[in-house]
Design brief:
Layout lengths: L21 E5 L2 E4 L4 E4 L2 H4 L8 H13 L10 H12 L5 E5 L2 H19 L5 E5 L8 H6 L18 E2 L4 H5 L6 E6 L2 E2 L5 E2 L2 H14 L2 E6 L12 H4 L6 E4 L10 E5 L19 H14 L4 H23 L4 E4 L2 E5 L5 H9 L5 E3 L1 E4 L2 E4 L7 H19 L1
Parallel strand pairs: 3-15, 5-6, 5-7, 7-10, 10-11
Antiparallel strand pairs: 1-2, 2-3, 4-12, 8-9, 11-12, 13-14, 14-17, 16-17
Helix pairs in contact: 2-9, 3-9, 10-12, 11-12
Bound molecules: pyridoxal-5'-phosphate.
The site of pyridoxal-5'-phosphate has 15 residues, from helix 4.
GO biological process, one term: L-arginine biosynthetic process
EC number: 2.6.1.11
Protein name: Acetylornithine aminotransferase
């Protein structure tokens, strides 16, 4: 069936979408309404960590949908208990609150830090965040984000998010005052262009926040759940934060996110936090299925092996085309272009014949790769060889 623009008129126009309707997905492949196939290296912005329609997740949802969808967040349900226990066992955190999106989990983290500041720091409420960071699209999380121009959109902002410079500890130190309650960062800035925190910076930041008696919050909405080659990216740095948020990969494609904290920080009182869908068994059952695949023996090692393989391949491409190398952690990587033709490459990739390739350029001089964590070496090879042809095509 051909695409008819009149069919989509009822949808609010919030971004420029290509004239395609996707109807099917399996693993690293998507199929549109005309039966064309696409190798998907975006996976819903790092959301489908096990690819499209992974059997484990499909089965968990099927089963759970038949037995219990929503008892109410005011009651316990087994899948949410199971997932919370798995997450606390695998991390340095003791308590979990489930939510439905990354932004909502981050809102919860901001509220939790402010509450902790009311109790322990004399009402301190400021949370230091970073230039080029991305924390979501609610009013508070947009204010926390360091995206250019976002301070003016939907003004007035939510107050209390001074911006420091990533990987520059003095810029954090200078902003800390008696109103500061926390520092919040992405271990690898994703939307900002795949910029990892330096090992030394992360460790010194942990030491500094301890010394000043303030909280360290890691936004692992993009970096968590194996994306960076450890279950959580903070583990790569050998530090222990006070608060962490998860989203994207945690549900393997369904709306699920989480706010985690250590016992000492778990200071919400009844009525402070909640939400209609929070911790519902349908989504948390999917989360349990995802977690068990990621946590199986050897899975993290295999991510790191293929991450190295992808990194080597990108470096070769970069050398061949005179680009500026690649960077990233695990299977969250970027190829740094030597010119501003990222969008042209993305466009050429999507319209490639006979099969398309779905890529993302968070900046015009950068391509971002966030494939399914179970992408095969053959699929990586295919992507690299297509990319080579596409660069030749765009730059001819
Ligand atoms: C995607 C993302 C968010 C927002 O998540 P939503 O589910 O879109 O609300 C927040 N923080 C980071 C680091 C992200 O990558």
């Amino acid at each position: 069936m051909a695409f008819n623009p009149a069919d989509v008129k009822s949808l609010m126009e919030i971004t420029s979408r290509p004239e395609l309707i996707f109807v099917k997905g399996e693993g690293s492949w998507l199929e549109d309404q005309e039966g064309r196939r696409y190798l998907d290296i975006m996976q819903g912005w790092a959301v489908n960590c096990l690819g499209h329609c992974p059997p484990e997740v499909v089965q968990a949802i099927e089963h759970q949908a038949k037995v219990l969808i929503n008892p109410s967040p005011g009651f316990y349900n087994q899948p949410s208990i199971d997932l919370a226990n798995r997450l606390t066992s695998a991390s340095c955190f003791d308590r979990v609150f489930f939510a439905n999106s990354g932004a909502e989990a981050n809102e919860g983290a901001i509220k939790l830090a402010r509450k902790w500041g009311q109790i322990h720091r004399n009402g301190a409420y400021k949370i230091i965040t970073f230039d080029h960071s991305f924390h979501g699209r609610t009013l508070a999380t947009m204010s926390a984000s360091g995206k250019a121009g976002w301070d003016k959109k939907f003004a007035p902002q939510v107050d209390g998010f001074p911006k420091a410079i990533m990987n520059y500890l003095d810029s954090v130190r200078e902003l800390i005052d008696d109103q500061t309650v926390a520092v919040m960062l992405e271990p690898v800035q994703g939307e900002g262009g795949v910029i990892p925190a330096d090992m030394q910076f992360m460790r010194e930041l942990r030491a500094l926040t301890r010394e000043k008696g303030i909280l360290l919050i890691v936004d692992e909405v993009q970096t968590g759940m194996g994306r960076c080659g450890t279950m959580f990216a903070y583990q790569h740095y050998g530090i222990e934060p006070d608060i962490m948020t998860l989203g994207k990969g945690i549900g393997g494609g369904v709306p699920l996110s989480a706010l985690l904290c250590r016992e000492e920080v778990a200071c919400f009182e009844h009525g402070d936090q909640g939400g209609t869908y929070n911790g519902n068994p349908l989504m948390t059952a999917a989360g349990v299925a995802v977690f068990d695949v990621l946590n199986a023996p050897g899975f993290m090692e295999s991510i790191n092996e293929r991450a190295q393989y992808l990194s080597d391949g990108l470096n070769k491409l970069s050398a061949k085309w005179g680009m500026k190398g690649e960077r990233g952690l695990g299977l969250l990587r970027a190829l740094m272009l030597d010119r501003e033709d990222g969008n042209a490459i993305v466009e050429a990739a999507r319209t490639r014949a006979p099969e398309g390739l779905l890529l993302n350029a968070p900046r015009t001089n950068l391509l971002r790769f966030m494939p399914a964590l179970n992408i095969s070496k053959e699929e990586i090879d295919l992507m690299l060889s297509w990319l080579d042809e596409l660069i030749a095509q765009v730059r001819q």
